[in-house]
C-alpha cells in the first residue's frame, strides 16, 4: 500500500516536472526565440508586411486586399467603385462585415460555386459588363474579350492583394482620364509596380493594388 502510494507520488511528481519543463521550453523559450529571430531577420514580414504611405502612416498590409469605393449613398446596398483608383479583384466572400468596412467579407474564403452555377455565371457576366463600362473612355473602348479572368472572379481566399498586369493595363486609360494624367505616365506606373515570377519561374507576374494606388496618389500630388 505504502509502496503503491509512493510510486504514484513519484510518477505524478515526474509528470508535473515534465509539464513545467515543456511549458517553459515550448510555451515561453521557443516562441521568444522564433519571434526574436523573425524580428531580426525579417522584421517587415514578422510585423504583418505593413505598407506605409509617403507620410509614413500605415495604410494596410501587402498581403491583404482592400476595396476603393465611394461612400454609400442613401438607399444603396452596394458601394460604387471610386474610379480614380485602380480596382482590385472582386471580393465575393462569405458575408458582410460591419466592423472592418474596408473589405466586404467577414471570413476569408471563396464562393465555392461550381462553374455551371447560375449565380456565379450571373456574377461573372455582370462583373464583365461593369468592367467594360467603367474602363471605356471617350478615346478608348474596352472589348469584352480584353477582360482578364481576375477582373471578374474572386481569389480562393477572397483577400488577394494582387491583380494581373493585364487587368492593371486595362484600367490605365480610365485612371489617366480620371486623374488628368497621360496614358504614358500611368503605363510607366504599372510597369514600375509589376513583380515578376518568384525566382523567375514560380507563379505569375502580379501587381500589388495597394502599393500601386499609393504611387498613383503621389504622382497625382506632384502633378497638382
What features would you describe in this structure?
The structure is a single chain. The protein is mainly α. Helix content is 45%, strand content 6%. Strands 3-5-4 form a 3-stranded antiparallel β-sheet. A two-stranded antiparallel sheet has the order 1-2. α5 crosses α6. The longest helix is centred in the N-terminal third of the chain and has 40 residues, at 2-41. The radius of gyration is 25 Å and the shape is elongated. The termini are far apart. The model is unreliable at 94-100 (pLDDT under 50).
What's the layout of helices and strands?
Layout: H1 2-41, H2 43-46, E1 50-52, E2 58-61, H3 118-135, E3 162-163, H4 165-170, H5 172-179, H6 183-192, E4 194-195, E5 206-208, H7 209-223
Antiparallel strand pairs: 1-2, 3-5, 4-5
Helix pairs in contact: 5-6
What descriptors fit this protein?
224 residues; mainly alpha; three-stranded antiparallel sheet; two-stranded antiparallel ribbon; 7 helices; 45% helix; elongated
β content, as a range? Answer: 5-15%
Mean pLDDT: 86
Unreliable segments of 5+ consecutive residues: 94-100
The helix-strand sequence is: HHEEHEHHHEEH
In DSSP terms (H or I, runs of 4 or more residues), the helix count works out at 7
**Oligomeric category:** single chain
Q: State the helicity in percent bands.
A: 40-55%
Number of strands: 5
| Apparent shape | elongated
The first-to-last residue Cα distance is: 91 Å
Amino acid at each position: 500500500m505504502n509502496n503503491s502510494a509512493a510510486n504514484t507520488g513519484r510518477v505524478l511528481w515526474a509528470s508535473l516536472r515534465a509539464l513545467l519543463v515543456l511549458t517553459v521550453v515550448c510555451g515561453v523559450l521557443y516562441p521568444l526565440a522564433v519571434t526574436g529571430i523573425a524580428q531580426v531577420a525579417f522584421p517587415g514580414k514578422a510585423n504583418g508586411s505593413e505598407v506605409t504611405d509617403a507620410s509614413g502612416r500605415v495604410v494596410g498590409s501587402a498581403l491583404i486586399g482592400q476595396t476603393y469605393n465611394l461612400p454609400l449613398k442613401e438607399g444603396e446596398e452596394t458601394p460604387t467603385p471610386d474610379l480614380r483608383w485602380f480596382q482590385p479583384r472582386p471580393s465575393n466572400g462569405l458575408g458582410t462585415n460591419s466592423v472592418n468596412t474596408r473589405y466586404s467579407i467577414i471570413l476569408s474564403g471563396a464562393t465555392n460555386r461550381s462553374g455551371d452555377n447560375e449565380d456565379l455565371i450571373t456574377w461573372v457576366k455582370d462583373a464583365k459588363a461593369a468592367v467594360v463600362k467603367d474602363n471605356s473612355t471617350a478615346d478608348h473602348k474596352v472589348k469584352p474579350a480584353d477582360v482578364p479572368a481576375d477582373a471578374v472572379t474572386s481569389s480562393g481566399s477572397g483577400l488577394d492583394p494582387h491583380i494581373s498586369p493585364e487587368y492593371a493595363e486595362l484600367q490605365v486609360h480610365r485612371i489617366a482620364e480620371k486623374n488628368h494624367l497621360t496614358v504614358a505616365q500611368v503605363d510607366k506606373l504599372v510597369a514600375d509596380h509589376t513583380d515578376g515570377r518568384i525566382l523567375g519561374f514560380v507563379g505569375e507576374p502580379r501587381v500589388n493594388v495597394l502599393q500601386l494606388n499609393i504611387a498613383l496618389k503621389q504622382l497625382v500630388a506632384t502633378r497638382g
